[in-house]
């Protein structure tokens, strides 16, 4: 049996993390940090920071540099606060081939790009559990599309995008058999596969479609990033468990000194797909879209997918050895350098795209991995960052020739130079940093200025809140030679990747209210006089309006136990920031928050006779408390 190789320093680091009591190092903040994060009352932040919510399935939006929480956007989780996933209009957003799945684990975010620069149109989000990719419209901060992935499990290396948002990519974390065959788990090598899904994005509407899937050997795809500039046609994935272990992962899956960076030529793949080199196979997956005109989500089930097998498509996929279970796979702004972060490695390998292309041309291979050529390590290597710290995870770039890598085990951010691979600076994080984010830091044009570290452990940084403490983000000023810690702020759920853009890119594009005359919801009520109650069998449709300060109708009778009552509430306001809410006593569903000009429907099936008060939940005017009514439910 091969012994697991763990450098001594790791053992020491892990031991010290467990044994020593962490000291609160609040004193580490120096100088003028306070004035750099102070955003005066009434003033705006400079950047929007979108932060993944991890196991809460949502995306949170902060202002930078203040760290003020601006909004929670429900994506893969039901959200009773505004009825997302509960209202009749939004239920279908969470549909999958296994019915409505109300929760997921959200890890990575990517802002749409044009020519490698942020364009402020959409935000893409992955679901790590039930494989899905979502698109959020940045003019409404609403989730407007969710696409499920077939032949995948644990959609982790997603939703990274190409320079012109041509494709969003989604890679399998857990290999599974294609289809749902009943096979022994021990047949992993023969029957299990990882897949890289390429989702095309419509230039105008943003609508996603699963273009093709590249079938790869059984292993775990971890993270990815698209090429840019010279490497525009390529996508790079990190992989682990290339030992193809299916049990005792710790022992079997980290034996080899190296795993791989997988380089995929997506332009070639596109050509092969067009030339009919793929195989269309049956595969069921849900595609959910929210139609802003009809204000309604619909879900359709797709029935097949195009598979591309590297065996039939030469020159499409290559592998580059990368030390010890690489996690992050990041490309610098020029698109020449590929940084692979081996979680268990004591160095950071940096690969050169041009050397990789030359190595492919010269056939500098050291064999193959189930038919995929393996490029020699040295042939693709630009160099190694020596002694960067312990547990390198993720790298971001400032656009000035510097890279910043998070060190999970030694809890620090390390700044190094792309030119000579020398470490330039280090700053502690509190504690155990995961992802890093520089505004635009994974694009061609980083905005620089700030870096945010998203930490896994908070310990003593905030007031204690019982057994569970807030996770945290830390803001650093990176405009000088030395990083300066400016601010800690708590985050919601577990933050993984994040994105930020200058507020000016989306601030002016915000939808302030929906034009009531363009309301295409089939249950809209255009004016209080049209409010009405219509019965058909045991279905009751209540056409209700809300405007300061009444709900019409406010007395509803003639409803019996067991009726399906649909409250279609139209907010008649045509003014910014005047939502109305709607809730009914004893309704096991949720409440609604209806934006001005919008119609939203809440279903209620009363089980008991009685009088049920209902009311507006959003304090909307001096007469808000009066905005209420009664539903009478009579025996059958
Ligand atoms: S993972 Cu979270 S720290 Cu899911 Cu991107 Cu690396
Ligand atoms: Cu409407 Cu309160």
From TrEMBL:
<dbReference type="InterPro" id="IPR041114">
    <property type="entry name" value="Nos_propeller"/>
</dbReference>
<dbReference type="InterPro" id="IPR015943">
    <property type="entry name" value="WD40/YVTN_repeat-like_dom_sf"/>
</dbReference>
<dbReference type="Pfam" id="PF18764">
    <property type="entry name" value="nos_propeller"/>
</dbReference>
<protein>
    <submittedName>
        <fullName>Nitrous oxide reductase apoprotein</fullName>
    </submittedName>
</protein>
<dbReference type="GO" id="GO:0046872">
    <property type="term" value="F:metal ion binding"/>
</dbReference>
<keyword id="KW-0732">Signal</keyword>
<dbReference type="GO" id="GO:0030313">
    <property type="term" value="C:cell envelope"/>
</dbReference>
<keyword id="KW-0479">Metal-binding</keyword>
<feature type="signal peptide">
    <location>
        <begin position="1"/>
        <end position="21"/>
    </location>
</feature>
<dbReference type="InterPro" id="IPR051403">
    <property type="entry name" value="NosZ/Cyto_c_oxidase_sub2"/>
</dbReference>
<dbReference type="InterPro" id="IPR011045">
    <property type="entry name" value="N2O_reductase_N"/>
</dbReference>
<keyword id="KW-0186">Copper</keyword>
<dbReference type="InterPro" id="IPR026468">
    <property type="entry name" value="Nitrous_oxide_Rdtase_Sec-dep"/>
</dbReference>
<dbReference type="InterPro" id="IPR008972">
    <property type="entry name" value="Cupredoxin"/>
</dbReference>
